[in-house]
Amino acid sequence: MKAYDPVPPRSVAFLGLGVMGHPMAGHLVRAGHRVTVYNRTLAKAGQWVKEFGGRSASTPKLAAQGADIVFACVGNDDDLRSVVLGDNGAFAGMKAGAIFVDHTTASAAVARELCARGHERGVPFIDAPVSGGNLGAVNGTLTVMCGGGDAAAFATIHQVAIAGLVQGLAEAIVFGQKAGLDMKAVLGVIGKGAAQSWQMDHRGPTMIDDQFEFGFAVDWMRKDLGLVLDEAKRNGARLPVTALVDQFYADIQAMGGRRWDTSSLIKRLR
User: Fold this and answer.
1) How many angstroms from the chain centroid is the CA of residue 136?
2) How far is CA 231 from CA 105, 174, 184, 258, in A?
3) Proportion of the chain above pLDDT 90, given as a percent
4) What's the CA gap between 25 and 52, in Å, rounded?
5) pLDDT tens-digit map of 149-180
6) Quick one: 191 and 136 in the same domain?
7) Could you tell me if 137 and 208 lie in one domain?
């Protein structure tokens, strides 16, 4: 089991118990915090309580009452607004000075909107998308990228970098295979040099083996890239490679790979 550095226990709420949120909220319990959870499907919240303890609430507002920090990890902009705003949203139940931390990979626009709405209520809003996928959530090894105010645009940068990287790795593997090379041996060599990346180390071998069941799905990648491209239109950034790879992922969806891992880009090259 993962060891945690000692921190003062806090009363916290966690909104959203999907493949990421479920284990993330569990780690908060194991770290000694008092956790109240909310999930749109209440049965999932009940299952989480049976597994980890803590308690569940029937609305985001009730979950957030008395919490020092409220975390959210939901699907998209509309999902996020639904758990934050309105009479039963988290903001309606949060005390002044409590902190709202959003782990959803949502748009910069909604981050700015909720940051402003939180400021009106005396509630700081932190935009904190995560990287590491479901295994990172389960193992407690996620990278959390925090921003506030204008830094909300940080949420788009990670997927821009990943999209081109995975496509390049896919092309390299297929090129080597067409040349008759042992690509696992090749990756073992070039992974010691400047070409090394997390994707090469962890997804290169599984791409070679045609295995794509490792967490972050193509549907979610396309959602994220859509946010990236929308923000690029707003700020004037030119992202031709990102737009191209987004269309490659559309091809994967058309092949039936909506829930395949993002490394499945290689499938359209074979």
Assistant:
1) 10
2) 13, 32, 38, 23
3) 65
4) 9
5) 544 444 446 677 788 889 999 999 999 999 99
6) no
7) no
